Amino acid sequence: MAPTPLPIDGLTMIPELLRRYPQARQVLDRYGLQGCGGPEGPVESLAAFARLHDVPLERLLEEIRQVLSAPRPPLSPALPASSGPPRGVDAIYRPFFLAGILVTLTAGATWGAYLLLRIGWAGSFRAVGVHEINAHGHAQIFGWVGLFVMGFAYQAFPRFKHTVLAYPALAWASLVLMLLGIVGRSVGEPLAESRAAAGVLAVASAWLEVLAVLLFVIVIGATWRRAERGLTCSDGYILAALLWFAIQAVYEAVYLQALLQTQSREELLTLIAAWQGALRDIQIHGFALLMILGVTQRVVLPAYEMAAPSRRGSLAALALLNLAVLGEVFGLILLGESRRFWAGVWYASVLLLSATVMTLVWHWGIFRPVREADRSLKFIRAAYAWLLLSLAMLVLLPGYQFGLLPKLAPESLAVQIGFSHAYYGAARHAVTVGFISLMILGMAARVVPTLQGVDPRRLPRLWVPFVLLNAGCTLRVVGQTMTDFLPSAYPLMAASGVLEVAALALWSGHLVRLMFGGWRSRTAELLPYIPGTPIEEGHSVGEILARYPELLETFLALGFRPLAQSWLRQTLAYRVSIGQACRYLGLPTQKVLAALNQAREALPPSMRSLPVLTS
């Protein structure tokens, strides 16, 4: 009997399409599929693919139908017969993500947690050296954030522009240079005070990182130039972030050399007070924030079908955000010249930045209900909540410093020197870990399954690392702020680092396993379901319910009582076949299959054949 034709519409799943019609891949490759998801492509619908790759759905469907109706489908003129670049480039994100994980679990978050324990034990922030703290912070910015940004950009941006990556050899070189720089900097800077050679190593490593960043900017710029598509609003944010990334790399290298040349602790602290705050604003608000806002508009909003950004409003916000970052930077650098005026410039810039971000978040509807949530959405929403909290803390800084502290802790060091390093550092932590790290965790948890061709609904929900990271960040922000009032708050703050590292370790183990095929064995037992064919015991319970939600009552009547819980239908059901469930519940498999197929045949013809999954 001839197989039932597969309907080609927005709800058609890419793996089903490519299994039945492999020649359709050339159309998807032309619009950016190119190796994603393996031979069968990612587990997502054509409508989702069209949204994420910014191609009109009707055009995509029409081109697929034309290819399928041709007697001998022509190869895409845009790509060679291999349907994309070499396999190594198809998965270029993997070594960058893996390197980022290794950095944060060693010189980044883990080292930071160790330093925090020393501070908590001593009850003083002066228990650790400046160069130790800076080397740890540097590893987080360049290794954790930088490597993940570079890996995602090399993988995704060419596909979003319907082209291939320019100069892949330079992209690989940027990884090597960045890793050498991070290792050299992490080893050299803490030892520089006692060994001159270590200082030379640290500075040389910083300039290797500058070269890596410049190669990254060149490759992404060349990729954009070779694409036929023009710049979009989100591209503007990403280009601005790349510019800030390059600026901060040069700034960091020059600043490090100046720090290592100071002759006394007083000179060192004076230099830090004048220049380090501006550097952190460039790194956090100029580079990381603008990059994440750009990726949100390009990936998050279409993925969850949130409100599309207004072009005029988005570009106006981009101009205001860059103006605010400039104001923050020059306000802090020039603070010593005319303290009151430049402090006002900095604070006005903070207000502008906060108001602009709040407007964007409200317009996008990040916290509004979506049609289909997944395991990553909680990370993304929590990240934006932490971003808003960090900005609110900066806005409230004058009230805290000059109103609350003098009344409740008049003898504190923060009142004596006129600035609370604890409160300001807590606000920084809220944005670096609460916002940036949670966004990395959430986006990677969504992107990697797509690139690996694994259905994310069959994967763990990652609640444990989510709760641990949020709990750790909360302890750090609250505990560090409370050190202005209570010495007993230091141990509370110190415990936060352990929770955060545990969260990152659990999440990293899951992601590495996913990147290198660890989940395929669990999903390989489940047979893919083709609409219009009988239900078999190897089909996933969750997939059948997603295609035929009307069969829920049949499942329940047959004895599948756990399916009454919606969370089980959205999670475990996708990892269990009908046969496995029958054996577990002690139900006769053939009787269950007969009842399900009978109920399916009783549905209207259109509902029996059309796929309803929307990924």
TrEMBL record:
InterPro entries per record: Cyt_c_oxase-like_su1_sf (IPR036927), DUF1858 (IPR015077), NnrS (IPR010266), ScdA-like_N_sf (IPR038062)
Keyword field contains Membrane: yes
Keywords: Membrane, Transmembrane, Transmembrane helix
One Pfam entry name: NnrS
All residue ranges annotated as the DUF1858 domain in the record: 540-591
Record field: transmembrane: 96-117, 137-157, 164-184, 196-224, 236-262, 282-301, 313-335, 341-362, 383-402, 422-441, 462-478, 490-512
Origin: domain of life: Bacteria
Protein name: NnrS family protein
Phylogenetic lineage: Bacteria, Pseudomonadati, Planctomycetota, Planctomycetia, Gemmatales
